[in-house]
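Q: Convert this sequence to structure tokens.
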Amino acid sequence: MANQVDIIQNISAIYDSNNSLRILKDFERVIDELNVYVYKNWEDGELVSGPKVSRHWVECSFYWPHKKMPDPMGGKRLLEFGCKVSYAKDEIEEPRRIKKPDDIRPSSKKGKMDKHPIWIVNIKMPKQLIFDIFKGTVRNKQDDGVDLESIYQYTDAEPNAPTSAAADANATAASGGAGGPEQEQIPNAPAM
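A:
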């Protein structure tokens, strides 16, 4: 049985760990690149547990209200790429909205806990698929003319200091550099 407190603790643990957040973003990237969100209700899922990383797999579980079951064709789409998808009915405990005194838990000011039916979809995704999709995404950025060195460049310089690529461009422009459009220098303007 799913519990709101467990879900919140899982999400908090993800935000406390850069690796978990990065893995979850890569997991979501695969779902997005495989066009699973095209299928009905897939975009409404909420994370229950995960990402759980093993040697060859990354596993996450998501839940949907019982009336908004995700289209099984989306799961079938993931199966075609080597993922393992399982559907299960479960219940989640949520606090009741307090409208009358009977809605309050005894010796508390909080609402009684009600059980609501949900669908839990467990997706077990191969790490190789995550890597291949990421590699394809990077390759597409290279094809689009994005300078990947500037994306992945890490520097110990000040946060507002220009990177070496920006400094080279500014030096070229200041010296009336060759091979580029003329840029007008505005005195006392902040560097971009």
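Residues 154-175, 177-186 have pLDDT under 50 and may be disordered.
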